[in-house]
Amino acid sequence: xxxxxxxxxxxxxxxxxxxxxxxxxxxxxxxxxxxxxxxxxxxxxxxxxxxxxxxxxxxxxxxxxxxxxxxxxxxxxxxxxxxxxxxxxxxxxxxxxxxxxxxxxxxxxxxxxxxxxxxxxxxxxxxxxxxxxxxxxxxxxxxxxxxxxxxxxxxxxxxxxxxxxxxxxxxxxxxxxxxxxxxxxxxxxxxxxxxxxxxxxxxxxxxxxxxxxxxxxxxxxxxxxxxxxxxxxxxxxxxxxxxxxxxxxxxxxxxxxxxxxxxxxxxxxxxxxxxxxxxxxxxxxxxxxxxxxxxxxxxxxxxxxxxxxxxxxxxxxxxxxxxxxxxxxxxxxxxxxxxxxxxxxxxxxxxxxxxxxxxxxxxxxxxxxxxxxxxxxxxxxx
Length: 382
Ligand SMILES: Cc1cc2nc3c(=O)[nH]c(=O)nc-3n(C[C@H](O)[C@H](O)[C@H](O)COP(=O)(O)OP(=O)(O)OC[C@H]3O[C@@H](n4cnc5c(N)ncnc54)[C@H](O)[C@@H]3O)c2cc1C
Hints:
This protein has helices spanning 7-23, 28-32, 39-48, 66-79, 84-91, 94-101, 104-115, 227-262, 274-301, 308-337, 344-354, 361-373, and strands at residues 121-124, 140-144, 147-154, 165-171, 179-185, 191-198, 204-216, 220-222, 264-265, 268-269. It is an alpha+beta fold. The chain has 3 domains: 7-115, Butyryl-Coa Dehydrogenase, subunit A, domain 1 (Orthogonal Bundle); 121-225, Butyryl-CoA Dehydrogenase, subunit A, domain 2, CATH 2.40.110; 228-373, Up-down Bundle (Butyryl-CoA Dehydrogenase, subunit A, domain 3). The strands form 3 sheets. It has a 4-stranded mixed β-sheet with strand order 1-4-5-8. α10 packs antiparallel against α11 (344-354). The longest helix is centred in the middle third of the chain and has 36 residues, at 227-262. The structure holds flavin-adenine dinucleotide. Flavin-adenine dinucleotide binds at residues 122-126, 131-132, 156-158, 199, 353, 356-358, 360, 362-363, 366, 379.
C-alpha cells in the first residue's frame, strides 16, 4: 500500500496547478459571486484537456482515470473554487452517463460540444414529490409514433437556467423498472422554465416543465430497466460532489492557516493561541481522513464506476468535513471570514448544499447501514 500520488499523477497535478494559477486565480472572487456559468473557463479547460478526462479517447476524451479527474477538481478548486464546477460538469455528471450509455448519434450531437466547453448538460432527476425517494418520480414518457411524449416537471436542477440539454429521468412504466432517461433540449417545444430562485449558495435554480414534449426514440439514453445503470453512473457524480466538498473545505482551511500566521490580537499571532491551535489540529485530522476515503473510492473505481458503499462513505464524510472545516475557518477569520471579501464564506455556503444534494448525508448513511448488515431496509411503510 502506498499513500502517495504516482509520479504521473504528481506531474498532472503540477500541470493543472500551473494552468489554474495562470488562468483562474485572478478572477476567483468575482467568479464565485457571478450568476453566469463560466463558459470562458470551460473553453480554456477544454483546450487544456481537463474536460472528459475519464472519457475514452475514441469518444473525444482523454482516456484517463477517475483519480485523474479527482486530482483535477481538487487542484482547480484550490486556486478557484467556482471553477471546480466546470471540472465537475465536464467530467463527473451527466456527461459520464452519456459517454457510457449514449448511442453514437447522441454522442456526436451532444458529447462533442460538451467536451469542447461549448454546451452544458444538467441532470433532471428531482421532482416536487420525489426528492430522496427519487424512484417516486412521475414525469412520464408515453409512446407516440416513433418517439415519446414527456409530461412532468423537475426542480433543483444544478445549472438548470444555463443548460442546453437535460438528462431527464422519466417513467416509461410502473415501478423502479419503469424508470429510464431521455435527452431533452431546453429549446424544444413544450419545455418552459419557471420562476428563478436561489439556493443559500447563491446558485440559481428553476422548475423545469415538460408539457407534451416530443422526444424521438433515438434520444432515449436508457430505456425501461435502466435505473440501476443510471445510479451506477450517478455514483461518479457523487464523487465529484465529494471531491468539491473536501477541496472547498481545504481552501477555507488554507486561508485560515495563512490568516492565523499573520493576524495579531493581544500582541500575539492568532496561531499562538492554544484555543485556535486545537481547531487547526481537528480540521487537519478531518481533512486527512476525508482525503483517504475519497482516494480509496476513486482509486478502486479506476476507469469504471465507483463502489456504491465506498462512494457513500466518502461522500458522507467529505460533505460533513467540508462544511465543518469551512465553518471553523470562518470563525478563525472573524469578521473577515464572514465577509464576501474572502472566499471562506462562499466555501461554507457551497459545502452546506452538498450535504443535501446528490444523496443527502442521511440517505447515504442508510446505504452504509445496509452494507454493514448486508441486507436491505425498506424506508417505506409496510
Ligand atoms: C445545491 C443542490 C443542488 C442540487 N442539484 C440537483 C440536480 O442537479 N439535479 C437534481 O435532480 N436534483 C438536484 N438537487 C436536489 C437534491 O437531489 C434533493 O434536494 C435531495 O435528493 C433531497 O431531496 P429533497 O430536497 O426533496 O428532501 P427530502 O427528500 O424531502 O428530505 C428532507 C430531509 O429528510 C431526510 N430524509 C428523507 N428520507 C429519509 C430517510 N429514509 N431516512 C432518513 N432521512 C431521510 C433527508 O435527508 C433530508 O434531510 C440539488 C439539491 C441541492 C441542495
